[in-house]
Specification:
Largest sheet: 5 strands, mixed
Number of helices: 6
Shape: globular
CATH class: Alpha Beta
Structural class: alpha/beta
Strand content: 15-25%
CATH superfamily: lpxc deacetylase, domain 2
CATH topology: lpxc deacetylase, domain 1
Number of domains: 1
Strand order of the largest sheet: 3-4-9-5-6
Radius of gyration: 16 Å
CATH architecture: 2-Layer Sandwich
Distance between the termini: 20 Å
Helix content: 25-40%
């Protein structure tokens, strides 16, 4: 969650993942409203927007390099260590599961991750709606597991990787191996704070 003045911006991870993967670290974003557009639930629209706007080289940035292995265990596991990749292990009792790790490069982001859409388990929809969440969700921007048609058999796993990449961007330019099991935003942020303190 980003805070801009008194406005709280939710779900910025798709945009943050795009900016980090495409090497954009100096950017001004103007927002109308209190939430970023969901687009189609993936980062593909943000990639297109950056491509359309263009990038101006500003010189290389020195990325942070982890000096050792930081492993945070709570209700999931997050590991930050020397390397240059992003990976996830996903295992829902009655939902998608899989393991995926890709190089932390623009090419891998575009080809393997950016197009993967947000998903929700069908069994969770009533609970989320009752809690006032997912009000902007629709068939146009959210995959409902297992009833929606997928862009790839492991699209939900790839989307979890997209989210993890976006949260890693909160650390700024960094060269590391970032791997999460049963990951979620709260775990990611906690792990990065602790690892980089």
């Amino acid at each position: 969650m980003l805070r801009a003045g008194d406005v709280v911006v939710r779900t910025p991870e798709h945009l943050l993942a795009t900016l980090a993967a495409l090497g954009v670290w100096d950017v001004a974003i103007e927002l109308e409203g209190d939430e970023l557009p969901a687009l189609d639930g993936s980062a593909a629209g943000w990639v297109d927007a950056v491509d359309e706007a263009g990038r101006v080289p500003t010189g290389p940035l020195e990325p942070r390099l982890p000096s050792g292995v930081a492993r945070i265990e709570a209700d999931g596991v997050a590991t930050l260590e020397p390397g240059a990749s992003v990976g996830v292990a996903v295992a829902y009792d009655d939902g998608p599961s899989g393991l995926l790790e890709v190089p932390a490069t623009e090419e891998a982001f575009r080809a393997e991750v950016a197009w993967a859409r947000t998903f929700v388990l069908a069994r969770d929809v009533p609970r989320l709606l009752a809690a006032g969440r997912g009000r902007g969700a629709s068939e146009a921007n959210t995959v409902v597991w297992p009833t929606s048609e997928l862009r790839a058999p492991d699209e939900p796993v790839r989307h979890k990787l997209l989210d993890a990449w976006g949260d890693l961007a909160l650390a700024g330019p960094i060269r590391a191996r970032w791997f999460v099991e049963r990951g979620h935003h709260q775990l990611h942020v906690h792990a990065l704070r602790e690892a980089l303190a």
